[in-house]
Amino acid sequence: MPGKTILIVDDSKVSRMMISALITDIDNSFKLVEAENGDHALEVIKTEKIDYFSVDYNMPGMNGLELIDKLKPNYPDAKMSLLTANVQDGIRTECDERRIKFTDKPVNESCIKAMLEYFHG
Amino acid sequence: MVNQIQLPPLEEDMLKELFNIGVGKAAASLSQMINQEISLSVPKVTIEKIDKLVALLGADKEIVSISQDVEGPFGARSMLLFHEESSMKVVKLMLGKQMPDEMLAELQEEALTEIGNIVLNACIGAISNAMKESFNVDIPSFQQAKPEQVFAGNNLESESTILLLEIDLTLKESDVTGYLALIFGSDALTNLQDAIGRMLTKLGAA
Fold it and tell me: Which domains does chain B carry?
């Protein structure tokens, strides 16, 4: 699926580096765009056409679910994954209610593979 | 001398069990990040003055601390603590030994903050799920200094009384020990006891 773009939103530079490296290792056809928080992500989407979203939950400013709620009206069919260290059941439930994927950190090959399979599916 | 926590035995047992569940998940997450087995000490639950924790860590030793405030049925400050020299080894294990030292040094704070975020959230998440209660977890805060300065930066003066849940995480193949602590102010203790009481009631034990 060439030419698809993933927006990686995470306030941790190390996390963004690891997510990007693993995605590229698994499938280098994706264009990767990064944002370091929700506000930055909302700026990025003004100039980039995004197909898939990988969004951290716990970030300064708006959290990942608040960002997703802002994105959803403009991207009703886009696949989105909350990629988070917050493994509480309540967060999983909120993802289910929004019909987005919950992916738990730590970032590793298996969680990134699962996320990409969800995007492809 | 360390004071033993003044909780009824069943409540203390439940608290240790919850912490065990949390730390078990936290250690599993850390182990995945650094590809190394981690052994856990038996958890200690004590009422301490902050200066006891300073002495445990070594007053003259530089430490790194990643802390996150937790709010929910009870409030607490969760902290992951490493001695400075150990923290660099952890970063190296996480990011790969082939990364140049200057780049490792540049990424040390970012990497440790993310490690703390994952480990502390794993611990809190496991406790939350076991309790069937929700907690808000603040974003992680990184500090590097002598223990007393770190705790002063966390508004914990040497005379502050805290309920300390402490566990040592030791990497099996490296000379690294970390400490995971949940620190409760004295006013949070009642809320904590209430939450544990609710759990015991659900279990039909109270």
Answer: 9-201 (3.40.1550.10)
